[in-house]
Amino acid sequence: MSDKKTEPEPQNPRRNFIQKSILGASTFAGLSVASNAHASVENGVEDFEPEIINEVDILVVGSGSAGITAALQAGRAGAKTLLVERSFQLGGTTTTGGVAYPGLFDAWGKQVIAGIGWELIKESVELDGGKFPDFSKVPRSHHHNQIQINQFIFALLAEEKCREANVDIAYYEFPSKVTKTDKGWQVDCVGFGTKRRVLCKQIVDCTGGAEVVGMLGFERLREKERQPGSYLYQMGSSHNPASKQLHRLYVHGADSTNSRTATLANLTGRKTILEKVRRDKKRLMHLQPETGFRESYRIVGETLISVQDYTSGRHFDDAVSYAFYPVDLHTRTGVRPKPLKRGTVPTVPLRALIPKGSENIIVAGRCVSSDRLANSGLRVQAACMGMGQAAGATAALAAESNTTPLKVPLSKIHGLLQNHQAIIPSKA
Predict the structure, then answer these.
(1) Which of 344, 318, 324 is nearest to 414 (CA)?
(2) How many distinct structural domains can be found in the chain?
(3) What burial letters (b/e) apply to 89-116, b meaning 16+ CB within 10 Å?
(4) What is the spatial distance between Cα 195 and Cα 61, in angstroms, rounded to a whole number?
C-alpha cells in the first residue's frame, strides 16, 4: 500500500463559476452563460509565413464606400483583385465610423445612383427588415431620403459579396512602398507579422486621402483647417441599429493625415465622451471604434470639379456617375446645407478620378479632384459608391487591354457599368 498522499485538485474559480452558473441557478440566481456558437478557421502552412507575394490585376487600397464597389466591380468583371484595408472590417465611414444612413441615391423624384453600391444597401435593408424611402416623392429636406441601415449587417454582406466575386481581402495592412514596374506596380504592404508584396497592373486608391497617390509624389490639395470629425456614440438607451442616428460629438481639428493625427482625434473624442458619461450620469450603451473623418487630401486630377460645376449640374463629356447632395460644409458653428436648385444633378467625370500626369492608377471617393465646396457634396456614401464602381470598371478594362485608365474608351466603361446595373449620366 502506497504512502503517497493524494493532493486535492487545484481550484479553478472561473470554471467553478461557469459550472455553478449552468447547474445551480438557484444558488446563483440571475446569472447565466450565453449560448456558444462555433466556427472553425482552417489555416494553411503558408498562412504563417511572414512574407507573401500576390500577383493580381487590380489592387484596391481602402475599403470604404468607394473601395468596396471598386473591388466588387473589378472582381465581377473578371479581374483578379486584392482589397487591402488598414482596419478590421469593410465599410469605412458607414461601419467603422457609424454613419449608417447613406445618401443620396435619388434626386428630384427618381433614382440616379444604382449598381453595386445600391445592391449592397438594398440587401442590407431587406435582410434587416427595414424600410425604404419613396424615391418618387421629392422630400422637404434631403435627409428624409437617407436610408437607415444596420451597419453590422452591411459589413457582413460586403464580405460575402467579395467572396462571391473572388475578391481577396487583406485586413490590418497598408502600403509602405510603391514602385513602378514594366507591367504596372510593385506595392509593398506591411501588417503585424506580415510583409506582402503585391505585383499588379492597376491601382485603385480609395483611401479617402489619396494616400497611394501621395506616396507616388503626385500633387494633392488640402485645406489649412479641416472640417470637424464626428465620434458617434449612444448614451442612456440601447442602440437599435437602423432605427435612428447615434449621438454625435464634433471633434474639431480631427485630421486623418497620418496615424499620429488619427490617434489624437480618437483619444480626444473618447476622453470627451468619458467626461460626458461621468457628468451626465448615464450609461454608455454604444461607442463606434473610431472618429469619422470628413476631409483630408484631394487629388489634382486631369480635371477639377468646381463648386460652380457641381451646383450648376454640369454634364461633363466624360461623365461616369452622378452625385447628389447639398453643399454641406461643417464648421465650428455647425452646418447649414445649401440645397441644389430644383432639377440639378451633378456629374463626376472620369478625368477627376485620374491624378494629373499619372498612368495605371485611378482614385475614387472623397479624394476626387474637386474644390472644397464641391467636395463637401461629393464626399457622401452614394456618390462615392458611384465613383467606386466607375473606377473599378475602368481599372478592369485597362488591365484587360494592357493600357492606362485615361485611354480606355468611354463607351466601353459605360457598357460595363450598364451591364452591372449602374446608371450612366445622360445629357438633359
Answers:
(1) 318
(2) 2
(3) bbbbbbbbbbbbbbbbbbbeeeebbbbb
(4) 16
Per the CB < 8 A criterion, the answer to whether 231 and 251 are in contact is: yes
CB 80, CB 225: distance < 8 Å:
no
| DSSP symbol at 146 | P
pLDDT value of position 174: 98
Q: Backbone dihedral region of 233: left (phi > 0), alpha (psi from -120 to 50 degrees) or beta?
A: beta
C-alpha cell at 341: 436648385
Please measure the distance between the N-terminal and C-terminal CA atoms of the chain and give it in whole angstroms.
102
Give the distance from CA 134 to its chain's centroid.
25
Which cell goes with 308?
460652380
Contact indicator for 84, 90 with CB cutoff of 8 Å? no
Task: Specify whether 279 is located in the same domain as 313.
Answer: no
> What is the predicted pLDDT for the residue at 31?
55
Q: Is 36 exposed, middle or buried (0-12, 13-18, 19+ CB in 10 A)?
A: exposed
Three-state SS at 94: helix
- d(CA 423, CA 428) in angstroms, rounded, equals 14
What confidence tens digit (pLDDT) does each residue in 35-70 have?
A: 789 999 889 888 899 999 999 999 999 999 999 999
**Full domain range(s) for residue 277:** 229-287
- DSSP class per residue in 54-80: EE-SEEEE--SHHHHHHHHHHHHTT--
Q: Considering the domain boundaries, does residue 205 fall inside one?
A: yes
Enter the C-alpha cell of residue 415.
457598357
- 348-376 residue pLDDT tens: 999 999 999 999 999 999 999 999 999 99
Q: Rounded to 5 degrees, what are φ and ψ at 288? A: -70, 155
Listed residues 260, 287, 314: the one ending a domain: 287
